[in-house]
Specification:
10 helices, six-stranded mixed sheet, alpha/beta, globular, single chain, 39% helix
């Protein structure tokens, strides 16, 4: 059985990356990536700075096409699907960005209501109710009419998360969620990610270099190596830290970035 056929026949596999090569023109970022993300995983994409973590995330969520290889979502090859099918598959994702990416001129409720207004037929009153619900899920009940500049960085991260879950996505995607946060706020965000995974039944994919978060919430991971330009480890981050045969992986997970 081919790798792709095996992936499509596995009911627990939510996302699969098959023989993926990422490049900008002739410059290869990573090659021959093969890994699967299971339903309910909190999956960590990790590696030293410049290894291509965020670029891989863009390939997974449909923002950049691969030089070679495939990305499967629920057994469907995203990059060989028609454009209308790709757009439907993108709806599986809720994405949060490093700075929250909130519109500064809109209140938190209005920010969260944007995707609801774009992709649903809900009335303005119902959109307001849903926005309030999503804010309450991330600990921001009562902040509907605040503007992003009026709240802290950690609260903006949570508001960005509330917007990401506005359409009840199956997959939550984070790019450096703890960047710029103090340790306490970072830990609270980690706890919130776990709570949402458990309560909403989502699969979570995270790009991060923060070791505390990697070990606190990661259930599975892939390690991208800058020098060899390919993945050199896959598995539970704690197990990799303690038992990996590769000194590059052990060094990263025991002492931080190389």
């Amino acid at each position: 059985m081919s790798v792709a056929a095996g992936i499509q026949s596995s009911p627990d596999t939510h996302i699969s990356v098959v023989d993926l090569t990422m490049a900008y023109g002739d410059f290869v970022i990573q090659r021959d990536l093969n890994f699967s993300i299971q339903r309910g995983d909190i999956f960590i994409i990790m590696g030293a700075s410049g290894c291509g973590k965020s670029t891989l995330l863009k390939h997974i969520i449909g923002l950049k096409s691969p030089a070679k290889g495939s990305v499967y979502i629920d057994g469907t090859n995203f990059w060989t699907s028609p454009i209308d099918k790709q757009e439907r598959l993108k709806r599986h994702y809720g994405v949060t960005f490093q700075a929250g990416a909130l519109w500064s001129s809109l209140t938190l409720a209005e920010n969260i209501g944007l995707p609801l207004g774009e992709y649903t037929d809900l009335s303005p009153a119902t959109i307001r109710e849903v926005a309030s619900l999503k804010l309450s899920l991330v600990g921001l009940a009562g902040f509907e009419d605040f503007y992003p500049a009026e709240i802290s960085g950690g609260m903006r991260k949570r508001a960005g998360l509330a917007r990401a879950i506005a359409l009840d996505p199956e997959i939550l995607v984070f790019d450096e969620p703890s960047a710029g946060l103090d340790p306490i706020s970072s830990r609270r965000l980690d706890d919130l990610i776990k709570e949402l995974r458990d309560s909403l039944g989502t699969t979570v994919v995270i790009v991060t270099h923060e070791l505390a978060s990697i070990f606190a919430i990661g259930t599975n991971s892939v390690f991208l190596d800058t020098e060899s330009k390919t993945m050199i480890a896959e598995g539970n981050p704690v197990v990799l830290r303690d038992h990996s045969d590769d000194p590059r992986v052990r060094s990263f997970l025991n002492r931080g970035e190389l």
